[in-house]
Amino acid sequence: MDIQQQFDAAVARSKELTKRPSNEELLRLYALFKQASEGDVTGERPGGFDFKAIAKYDAWAEQKGKSKTDAMNEYIGFMDNLYEQYK
Length: 87
Prior knowledge:
It is a single chain. By secondary structure, the protein is mainly alpha-helical. The protein has one domain (about 5-85): Acyl-CoA Binding Protein (Up-down Bundle), CATH 1.20.80.10. It contains four helices and no strands.
């Protein structure tokens, strides 16, 4: 199985969790997914009181410079750990 297939399988597993991961874990998953799918964050950082959008933007921005392959590998490993914890 190549890295893209492993990544897609990990994304599918994320929808099978029976318990909800913590907000920090969800933000990390989101950021790694976005980095693996789209690359470095683009656009302006959200302002105002949209704290959820700000947190998501900041989490993704922390991944800046990480290659698509590295982000995929990190996502897969992190999802494996979460799956064991929250399945």
